[in-house]
Design brief:
Blueprint: E1 5-8, H1 15-26, E2 31-35, E3 46-50, H2 60-63, H3 76-90, E4 95-97, E5 101-103, E6 115-120, E7 123-130, H4 136-144, H5 157-168, H6 185-194, H7 215-218, H8 224-228, E8 234-236, H9 252-260, H10 270-274
Parallel strand pairs: 1-2, 1-4, 2-3
Antiparallel strand pairs: 4-7, 5-8, 6-7
Length: 275
Amino acid sequence: MRPEIVTFWHGPLDALRLTCLRSQVAAGHRVTVYSFEPIAQLPDGVGNAEAEAILPHAFSEKLRPPQPDGRWRDWTILQFSDFFRMRLMARGAGLWLDADVLLLKPIEIDPARPYFAWERPRQLGNSVLYLPSGDPIVAAFADLMEQDELTPDWLALRHRLTFLLRQLRGRSNRVSDIRVAIYGPAALTALARRAGELRYALPKKSFYAVHAEPKRFFEPQDFSALIGDPEIIGLHVSPKGRGNRPPVAGSLYGWAAERFGPSDTVIASEATQSI
């Protein structure tokens, strides 16, 4: 089955993520971005749906209080999206892809089985995620979301000790403050292990070939092996602040921008980039 692709976004989309969304449409998928405010200038073929109907904005206050002007603080967006994708799984909404996943070919899933891949040698990534609505991982998150304190029963020992020390020192009573990814890849990995589902994980290079090496995406080099490898389905880019920089000629980003970008995309030379 070729699923609908779903994701969540908070704020304006940068050029890199718009390119990635176009790649997902070009692969033949219907794509929906959920948001609390309408997103302007979405690519053709990408729909915009109301996030409040999936997970209320007020849930973010369980993670941490907002700033005085109402804006979310530091890690709130990332952690909120960890819960949002699980709520989408519970609703059978489709396949979650982060907005910075460049898709090189269509994704086919078995709707009765989980779909994810290794991000690191012992950790799954949750940037690409499908779970059946009745999956034990989905149920575990549903139970967690009923709590006010959002304390998972799958926390690793080191995280339990870190949390205890923070409490004793009066620094925080929120598990969400331990680390940014506390509800993300580490949680998915622990729960997949508990449910006996690690066997479904795809190899790392399926989606995470450049994730930890952004130079392979943003800087000029020979990328033919990446786009020619039949086992690479897509690339989770993780731009880390580079999302609105012009793509550099000779880079994988430059290739992607020309292939999936609008007709007026400008590819910068290395000299222009260095100015």
